[in-house]
Amino acid sequence: MSALTDLPPLRQSLEAHGLMADKGLGQHFLLDLNITRKIARLAGPLEGLSVIEVGPGPGGLTRALLEAGATVTVIEKDARFLPLLNELADVSEGQLRIVMGDALKADEADLAASQAVPIVANLPYNVGTALLIKWLTGAYRPASMTLMFQKEVAERIVARPGDDAYGRLAVIAQATAKARIVMEAPARAFTPPPKVDSAVVRLDPHETRPPEPVLMALERVTQAAFGQRRKMLRSSLKVLGGAELCEAAGIDPSRRAETLALEEFLGLADKLLERG
Ligand code: SAM
Questions:
Q1: Mutation to probe ligand 1, out of 10, 11, 23, 29 (largest number of atoms < 8 A from CB)
Q2: Of all protein residues, whose CA lies closest to atom 17 belonging to ligand 1?
Q3: Predicted local confidence at residue 1, as pLDDT
Q4: Three-state SS letters, 205-221
Q5: Which of 55, 65, 220, 250 is surrounded by the fewest CB atoms within 10 Å?
């Protein structure tokens, strides 16, 4: 039986199966194993761990995760990749489970046998943010997330007050996890190259996260506040209580959303909940 290391280069495997990227599914492949190995290291150590990978495509990142000693469950929407992934499963000694389906609809607890496991992915651009919000706020809580995004999205996830990129995504991400950019990847690293550069974000969920009602209130506050980010809070938050809500949370209503720290948004969400 051949081993993982005996597999042909990814480009050759794609050609052998006559596979081309489908842009509608956000397909930009990482065919350089040095890059996928680096991502696996950033997600690790993975030896002996179960991991979920979303959107394996031709399996470059999957190979790196298997090499790192992980047991991998992949979920892929594009059935064209099944024969190629099956070849990988054949040499993985039972360490690869393939699930065909839409990750947006997947039950991660089911995929992970109810364990909190790391999620690793080079995410499809069109659904990356929706998947992240699902993993940060949904019922299933991953052990960690190591995710490739468009650089602009990565910057919105890790942004701090005062940054141009600071907004709803930063507040929700940082209320629920520690988030940092751990690697940058130029557009030329992908086949075919996308229009923009990418970056890997590592997210480690906080031990305790705000309860569901607080997260929902936080969503309402940030939607209103950043929906009119140049306006003072007394006006952008008007429908939620405006100046009165701000004062109850000890925040000057003449400030703007982009100046508020995470704790201040959480304070506003608490007061919004108290007011019913
Ligand atoms: N992981 C591969 C790599 O790094 O070369 C492919 C990455 S490509 C950016 C995104 C992959 O996600 C594609 O294989 C695509 O078919 C798959 N995909 C897109 N939408 C999906 C969804 N909703 N659920 C699961 N997979 C999806």
A1: 29
A2: 55
A3: 44
A4: ECCCCCCHHHHHHHHHH
A5: 250
